[in-house]
Design goal:
about 180 residues, mainly alpha, three-stranded parallel β-sheet, two-stranded antiparallel ribbon, 7 helices
């Protein structure tokens, strides 16, 4: 890994360059970098709203990154040891749904813990994949669901050799991390 390159922040650096140009955009968001809504600027701070801008050429385009977003995604992939990294908007929900939609199709089985987020269930409804649930154990003292047990996961795979993928909550809403190895 190129440690010097990992110190870069391409998207932030592009936002800072744009902020210094003091451009007032004629597109969304409507607060016009704080100038159109002084109350919002006072609440969040000028620096915050001055960086709240839409896609424009100097900032790249998330749907088809070619410059600063592409460079930032490549740096993220390198940092995590992945082949690719993709930035998302809309919080974890859109990321989870994109992963499920990319990993399986209508009628295909996906193995997952019973305590998945509703975004996973929504993705299954949208794409028609068939869930194969693994019931996680419960910590009796705390009353919270844990991660999937390896033996339970192995059994689900043996019982469903036609499953196309496995989804693991990691961490769960309660901060329980599974041993992904």
């Amino acid at each position: 890994m190129d440690r010097e390159a990992q110190k870069k922040a391409p998207v932030y650096e592009a936002l800072e360059r744009l902020r210094k140009q003091r451009v007032v955009p004629f597109d969304v968001p409507g607060h016009k970098r704080g100038r159109g809504n002084p109350e919002l600027r006072d609440l969040l701070g000028e620096r915050c709203v001055s960086l709240d801008v839409n896609s424009m050429k100097p900032l790249d385009n998330l749907c088809h990154p070619m410059s600063v977003i592409k460079e930032a995604e490549e740096l993220a992939a390198e940092a995590f040891g992945a082949d690719h990294a993709f930035f998302m908007v809309g919080g974890t929900t859109s990321s989870v749904q994109s992963m499920v939609m990319a990993a399986c199709r209508a009628g295909e089985k996906i193995i997952l813990p019973r305590n998945v987020h509703k975004s996973v269930i929504n993705a299954l409804v949208l794409n028609g994949a068939v869930p194969v649930y693994v019931d996680p154990k419960v910590d009796e003292k705390l009353g919270i669901s844990l991660g999937m047990e390896l033996d339970d996961l192995k059994q689900a795979i043996l019982d469903n050799p036609d499953a196309v993928c496995v989804l693991v909550n990691n961490p769960t809403y309660y901060g329980i991390c599974s041993d992904l190895r």
